[in-house]
Specification:
The chain is an all-alpha fold. It contains nine helices and no strands. About 15% of the residues are buried.
Length: about 190
């Protein structure tokens, strides 16, 4: 029975901290609420499979959002639902960002690796590749690198760069046109 009373007292203490904070949103009232919410949120993220350092970082982000957005809460009785919705949305944003983050290969690495693949006497191809790519704008170099060096599909590139797939196709076409013109000026075969 005493465990049940302890839980009820804890819930009332939480509700009171929420009421005080919502009535007077100051750093002092937020500190009391922070002390209550922080361990709850850490547990929430750990249960959902996060490592502790990432859970702590995301908890701080969520609590900052709570402090900043508290004025938008319409129903104080729904504070914990609102609070966990913010936590869930922040977690989903982080997961989406992680999926969109694509490791890319830098052109300097391509130059070094390309030079190392050719036998002695055939050196210079890596440098030629790098020179050809210099004829393009940085955004065009990046898209061609994603497409032809990292062998990503159009949709993957669109997702990675956060642009429509049609834009990706157009930019690749345009970059190839630019590269073809640059190579023809140098007397090379067209692509």
């Amino acid at each position: 029975m005493s465990d049940h009373v302890g839980v009820a007292e804890e819930r009332e203490r939480e509700r009171e901290a929420v009421r005080v904070f919502l009535a007077d949103r100051t750093p002092e009232t937020f500190r009391a609420l922070f002390a209550i919410l922080y361990p709850k949120l850490i547990r929430y993220f750990l249960v959902h499979g996060m490592e502790r350092p990432e859970a702590e970082e995301l908890t701080q982000d969520v609590l900052m959002a709570v402090f900043q957005k508290a004025g938008t809460l319409r129903d104080a009785d729904n504070f914990f639902g609102w609070f966990f919705r913010i936590a869930h949305n922040q977690q989903m944003d982080r997961l989406r960002l992680r999926k969109r983050t694509v490791e890319t290969l830098h052109l300097d690495d391509v130059k070094i690796n390309a030079s190392n693949r050719f036998p002695p006497g055939a050196a210079g191809h890596g440098e030629e590749f790098s020179e050809w790519m210099q004829a393009l704008e940085p955004s065009e170099r990046r898209i061609l690198t994603l497409r032809y060096v990292e062998e990503m599909g159009y949709q993957e590139i669109a997702d990675a760069l956060g642009i429509p797939i049609g834009t990706v196709k157009w930019k690749i076409f345009h970059a190839k046109e630019q590269l073809t013109q640059a190579l023809s000026r140098l007397g090379c075969k067209q692509l």
